[in-house]
What we know:
The complex is a heterodimer.
Chain A lengths: L15 H5 L15 E7 L5 E7 L1 H4 L4 E5 L30 E2 L5 E7 L2 H9 L2 E6 L29 E3 L4 E9 L2 H6 L3 E9 L11 E6 L5 E5 L4 H12 L6 E4 L16 H11 L3 E4 L2 H7 L2 E2 L2 E9 L5 E13 L5 H10 L11 E9 L5 E2 L6 H18 L4 H8 L8 H5 L16 H12 L1 H4 L10 E11 L9 E8 L5 E5 L8 H13 L6 E5 L16 H28 L6 E4 L2 E4 L5 E3 H11 L6 E7 L7 E11 L5 E11 L6 H20 L29 E6 L22 H13 L10 H10 L4
Parallel strand pairs in A: 1-13, 11-12, 14-18, 16-17, 21-22, 28-29
Antiparallel strand pairs in A: 1-5, 2-4, 2-6, 3-5, 7-8, 8-17, 9-15, 10-11, 10-13, 15-16, 19-27, 20-21, 20-26, 23-24, 24-25, 27-28
Helix pairs in contact in A: 5-6, 8-9, 9-18, 14-15, 15-16, 17-18
Chain B lengths: L1 E6 L2 E6 L6 H7 L18 E4 L2 E4 L12 E3 L12 H9 L8 H14 L5 H7 L11 H17 L1
Parallel strand pairs in B: 1-5
Antiparallel strand pairs in B: 1-2, 3-4, 3-5
Helix pairs in contact in B: 2-5
Amino acid sequence: MEEYLNIGKSLRKVDALALAAGEEKFTDDFMTQSPLYTAFLYSPVAHAEIVKVDTFAAEKVPGVADILYYDNVPGVLHTTAGQGYPEPSPYDTLLFDRKVRFVGDRVALAAAETRAAALEAVKKINVEYKELEPLFDIEKAMDEDAPRIHDGDEYTKIPAEYRPERNLAAGIEIGFGDLEKGFSEADYIEEHVYKMHYASHCAIEPHAAVAYFDERGRLVIISTTQVPFHVRRITGAVLDIPVGMIRVIKPRVGGGFGGKQEVILEPIAALVAWRNKRPARVVFSRREVFVSSRTRHPMRIRLKTGVKEDGAITAIEMDGLMNSGAYGTHALTVLANAGGKVLPLFNKISNLKFSGRTVYTNLPVGGAYRGYGATQGYFAFNQQIDMIARKAGLDITDFIKKWHIKEGETSEVFKALGEGKEGVSQIVRSCKLDECIDAGASAIGWQDKRGKRISSGKDRVKGMGVAVAMQGSGIPEIDMAAASMKLNEDGSFNLFVGATDIGTGSDTILAQIAAEVLTVPAEKIIVLSSDTDLTPFDTGAYASSTTYISGAAVEKCALDIKDQLINTASDMLGVSKDGLILRMGKAVDTKTGRKAPFEKISYHSLYIKNQFQIQAQASHTASESPPPFIAQFAEIDVDKKTGEIHVVQFVSAVDCGMPVNPALVEGQIEGAAVNGLSYALCEEYIFDSKGKMLNPGFWDYKIYTDRDIPEMKTIVVNSFEETGPFGAKSVGEIGINGPAPAVANAVYDAVGVRMYETPMTPEKVWTRMKEAGVI
Amino acid sequence: MEGKFKINGKEINAVFSPDSVLLTLLRENGFTEVKEGCREGECGACLVLLDGRLVNSCQVLAASAAGMEITTVKGIGDIHSPHPVQSAFADTGAVQCGFCTPGMVLAAFYLLKENTEPGDNEIKQALDGNLCRCTGYVKVIEAVRLAAKRMRETG
């Protein structure tokens, strides 16, 4: 392999020490000059019309400056989904509405001199509700007599199935081959229903936005966002403020995971600032994050496979029913991904149908969440293939190796299922899934422990499970990233990117890519990211896009700088360009050995001759989305007395192309895997019969601590993706797809029961064992 | 109310309301390195040392901390002269978003003051009040191990 200076090196993240020293600033750390504090009033009922809002008493609270509700704010239908324009999510949301659609929906907001006064004021807003019948059951959402949740002018910007009169937020149906023929050729049919549940992203930093006017009266919004450019566009559209009057700055962001791909607070902060000509601060409490931000869409998947005795799948039919909650953010695309990121994996099945519906209910709102539908799809898929392999008498790892998509192959699903439109046909150019499976199996001791039901103590029995997945690297022909660069006198470079580092380390990755092209150490690259006034456009941090798409923009940009360095050096040294290369921060003439360090080139171009700034800009879109691949193995103990699952060891082996920064790759996988285990086993939204979440806090919504983690092992299997920057693919999401199905398969291995529903709590495991007569 | 506080070695006078918690007082006086993640004493992002004891500052009334010595993450080292715990977090990849990091660093600092050679279980126990959603904790534990080693080596 080529020897790199920066690529493949676990360099320290550019902001790591400043973060560890408490120097870096997050959104809520900026507001110092007496802002207006805010508090929301939320609906106590799941479904109602607002008859009257009386703000008289609230306005009398000392310090109150403003009260917002439906009657005094712009009534522009929009989607809060921070997606590219036109967003594939329905335009079904108002800043404040005359109707409330879930417990926790916004009714009003008070802005005041103190947070206490704002809270006091919202308590004094009198609201008269006319309650409507609520809808909580997704299976009943499309019944003719079901309560109608959206009955205004909601619409979609794209030609997609959208029928709010039947609570249908999105519908999809694709297929190929002859499904019936496929099923009739099968020796048996395997058909099951799988369910995944609500979850909160639980980024430790709650959502926040502050807005203020700069010296010239332009509106500045600092936000905890994954999508600063979408924030600017959507805020401008909702408030009818020209985009040129708005500057969005993303400072350090305390984790996103999809939860901050939503434009929910910025228009509010902007509106309060705009109306009052004062800085405004809108910060969510943890309870608000749980209830009133966004969640993972719960989903019910029916998976039907026609199977030959040897395990060959003659037909596959996947049907998804997804709960979007009260609003349809990402309703179409998360649903599409449950099929689109899953079904291509077994690309030799010639008869296929994927159908799905996303329905509105009077429950909290779904949104983007790491894995984005693939997590839900893979929970079903990996259990089903475990069943099929077992019935065929095969080790599932051998079975997967036989059937999964290989280098040089394609799947019709790529073309059939896109994000809001048709997908893009592509050939898989890099796939080291076999190597991932082998490395993972060997690390966990698969052969020695699988199927053995080894006793691990009184009433405890061991089980082994595996799950595989692919994801993507950005959204092909939709995502776009841009970068610009310039050279300084000391041979350092400023790199400006729209790409949005939300803790992932993308600032560092992009510096490494630029530095590699220019043969300098990464610390010579000074990165400034995500400021809509200063940096070029980028769609943002989602869809595992940054390394692959923003990285390619940076590579292109750096290559342009490289050309300019060589041209200038050729002029300076009086040698032909042909023999000039860059090496360790110098232009070197390979024929004469003469050298021009970048410092000298910079001085030459800035001050000496044919003066110009060495600078470049580049944009990149991708015509394909090369999937990373992963194999994840779980070793668990099941306590047959209590049903408790204890994960002993968890191994992930991932192929994300060339790892630009292996430590950051491991960090992505470890974080995703632990989030996935926590989700699979203990995280849960508990609702009362009226749709109110009963556990909106970390005491009652349990997420993993360091004491809950198993022994973790992460193996990075290098491959080379020829279309990616230095062979890289993206890796942000994939690691969350395997934990739930790997654990479910391990439960079967241990005690012979299938877990069709998450979270796999002790009660559920115990009940399943009881039903099956295992205990 | 008004009170004197010694924060990171400096005396400050602060005005606060009787129901104000220490976290609010600190943030309103510019110590924004103390983070608010839950305000219910569960996430550990607001940890500070109060007269040398590790506390969630969201669970301490500001009034009850008057006259006491408070150390935030900036009090143990800075970007120019970082504490070994801070450097170790940066070096191992234990910092992703970094929002939980000030609390994590202080929890580790507190552990290593008493225990220079902690085992993994002791590290986990010392940091189990700090939630992190980015790292999966693997590299956090590695960071504390590395910090301990470096601190032992340099005495």
